[in-house]
Amino acid sequence: MGLNSSRHDANWIDLGGCLDGPTLRDLCVSPRSQHSMRALRWDAFLEALENVGISRAVAALHRSTARQRPGRDGHRQVQVRVRVGQREFRRRLLATMGPVCAFTGPGPAAALEAAHLYSYAAVGLHHDDGGLLMRRDLHRLFDQGDIAVDPNTLTINLREDLLPYEGYATLQGQRLAIEPDPGHIAWMEKHWNQHRVEAD
Predict the structure, then answer these.
(1) pLDDT confidence of 157, banded at 50, 70, 90?
(2) Alpha helices in 27-135 (DSSP H)
(3) CA–CA separation, 192 vs 199, rounded Å?
(4) Could you state, in order of their start, the residue ranges of all structural domains in the chain?
(5) Residue 158: C-alpha distances to residues 125, 134, 147, 175 (Å)
(6) What was the pLDDT predicted at 81?
(7) Is there a contact between 12 and 81 (Cβ–Cβ < 8 Å)?
(8) Interatomic CA distance for residues 172 and 150, integer angstroms
């Protein structure tokens, strides 16, 4: 690796969909810049993540940058990886299923994200039978395994630490709000085995 090369994959944290484009532009040092890569106002960026409930990612970002020296202007250069085809993937899911969160039912399309039922970072492809629409907070909890779907009953299963929260506790044991395809069920079974069977 040359002197001007660097690798960021080892410390990559998936923040796709956390903040929209206009919000990210406002967090740049030069929001009106035409450059495709722009310096972020780092403290404001972390605060914005915390405001949308991405506290674990914020903690990880703090750890990954704790030993980095800021530049002369007090800012750090940050690279963001974007999932190729994510917007089209979400468009297809909306066209197929309508604006329906797989866990809570119909809702505004703006509140729904295209969630992969598998690790996109590991697979690198958008499988339509491996995606469902989910509310942003539920998407994060699903990715972490705090929410899973029993592939035999197609009911929602929460980790114990979510049960004290009424907004989530009401989901426990509820059947999915959509009718999944066999492909969805196969992916949910893999997710279940990873976060419930193997974790026990």
Answers:
(1) very high
(2) 42-51, 55-65, 86-97, 120-123
(3) 10
(4) 1-82, 86-197
(5) 27, 15, 5, 13
(6) 47
(7) yes
(8) 11
Mean pLDDT of 171-199: 93
* 184 touches 117 (CB < 8 A): yes
Q: What is the DSSP letter of 128?
A: G
Q: What is the pLDDT of residue 161?
A: 95
Whole-model pTM over 0.70? no
User: What letter does residue 90 receive in the DSSP assignment?
Assistant: H
113-122 mean pLDDT: 76
Asked whether 76 and 66 are in contact (CB, 8 A), the reply is: no
Question: Two tokens at 111?
Answer: 């509140």
Contact 172, 129 (CB under 8 A): no
Q: At what angle do helices 55-65 and 42-51 cross, to 10 degrees?
A: 160
